What we know:
There is one protein chain. This protein is an alpha/beta fold. It has one domain: Rossmann fold (3-Layer(aba) Sandwich). The protein has eight helices and seven strands.
Amino acid sequence: MGLNVIMMGPPGAGKGTQAARFADGRGVPKISTGDILREMARDGHPTAVDAKARIDSGELVDDATMIEIVRERLMRPDAQRGFVLDGFPRTVAQAEALDRIVDERKQGPLIVVDVAVPEEELVRRLAMRRICVACGVDADPSVVGDRCAKCGGALEQRSDDNEAVVRERLSVYRRSTKPVLEFYRKRPTFRVVNGAQPREQVARELDAMIDDAASVKAESL
């Protein structure tokens, strides 16, 4: 049975870090829409090239396009044992389409984990974030110093991480994500983890929650 996980959470919650850690530990791919688009655009996939160009110009990509791109990625051999999705679905239409894709695969239930963190803690975390001006990698907030651990480039605060911008981003996230969370909330495979805890504790609880959700009998879904 596959391990099919959606990792949800606001900017600064640490869901990307936890998604990557969990996926690596379980031997399944961590898949984000941004990664998919960059990879497929490099390979010349026309749909991905067009979608990436629209995103880069500040436009939204329609549901049908995103669903097609994610479907193609989830049908690859490395995702047959499962996957961890980060950044998809973002709309109820996308969530409904993902249900259909998972049903087609017949490889186990869809587990949804919401990494919840209070807004004030998110603002504090995002204000501490720094990015390397040379290679663009986000620095670990716990790292002391002003140089990138990867390439040695200078670290600077991200331009979109000032408090006013951060609060607006969080407001937009809440408005856009609420319908998707409500779509999943009543399922027996939906879990909420307290992301305000130390990273190691979040990881332990997240592992336990996913294992518990994976044990839910298919007939109860």
